[in-house]
Amino acid sequence: MSRYAVNSLLYRLKKDRVFRTRFNVDPEGALAGLDLTDAERAAFLARDMQRINALGGYLHLVMSVPGMAAHVTHPEP
Amino acid sequence: MGKIVFAAAMSHVLDPDYYQAACGLSGRRKVEACMAEIGKLGDTLLAHRPDALIVVADDHLNAFSFNAVPAICVRIGRDVNRMIQDEAEAFDKVLDGMPERYALHEELANRILEDGLGAGFDLALSWEAPIDHAFLSPVMTMHGARPVTPLVPIWINCFVAPQPTPARCFAFGQHLARVVARSPWNVGIIATGGLSHFPELLLPRVGESDVVFDQKLLRWLTEGEHEPLRSLTPGELDKAGEHEFLNWMALIGAVTPARADVRYFGELGRINLAAVEWRVG
pTM for the whole thing? Predict the structure, then answer.
C-alpha cells in the first residue's frame, strides 16, 4: 500500500481538470507509469471510491473529486 | 492593551442544500437552525467592533497538497482568496457565489507568526494558500451582507496523521492570547468544524457520530474544565470523529478558563451540528 501514491493521484484528479479529463477518456493511459500497486490501479480503474478509501485515500478527497466523488446519503426514517 | 472580545466555535459546512441532499428535510431544518444561531453570534461579534477576526480551521487537502502539510500554519499577507474548485461537488460547492477576495489583518498575523517562532512554536507561514469552506462558511454566515472583519486565517492539520496533539493546540491558543494582550486591538476568535462526524475517516462509517463523546466535550466546556481536554489524544479524536476539535482546542487555550454556553447542538447522524460561545466579556 502506498498512501502517498493514492492520495497524490486523488489530489491531481480533483485539482487538475486536464488530467481529470484524460483519466475519464483513457483511464489506463492516464495511470500508466504511476507508482501504484495492482490493487490501487484496479480500484481507480473501477472508480471504486470505497476501495480507494480502504487503500488509504483520504476521505475528503474521496468525497469531492468531481465526477467520481462518493455521495453517501442517509434517508429519513 | 488588546483584548479577545468574542470567542465562538461552530460547525463549518453550513449549506441547507448539502444537508437536504445527504440527510433529507430534517438535515435542512437542523442546519438552518444552527446557521440562525451562528448569525446571532455574528451580531454579537460585530457589536464589539473588532479590529480582526482570528479563524482557526483545517485544510481539507485543498490549500496544501502533498508537497507540505503544516501542523500549524499562519496566513500572512494583505488579502486571501477563496478556493476555486471547478465542477465543485459536496462541501466544496458551498463556496460558489461567495466573494473571491478577503482582507487580512496583516500586522496581527505577522505578530502571531514572529512572536510564535520566538516562543518556540515552529509555525509554518503562507502568502498564497486559499481558504475553503472551513473558513468562509462560518465567516459569511456570521457577517451576511455586512463588511467582513479583517481575517487572520490559521490552519491546524486535523486530518493527515500525525497531527499535532490537543495539548499542543491548547498551548498555541495560549500564545494567541498573549499576542492579542500585547497588541492594541480588539480581536474576535472563532474555531470551526465538528462536532463528531466521519469517525476514522472511513467511508463506510460516514453517517455515524458519537453523541456521548460530544456531550462529554460540551460538559467540560460549559463547566470550564479544560484539564481533561488537554489529555485527549489524536487517536481518541480519530475514533470519535472529533478530528476538527483540534481547532477548538486552540480557541480554548486562547480563552481559558472561560466557560462556554452552547447556542446550538443538533444530532444529525452524519454530523452533530454545534455552535458554542465563550464568556470572554
Answer: 0.96
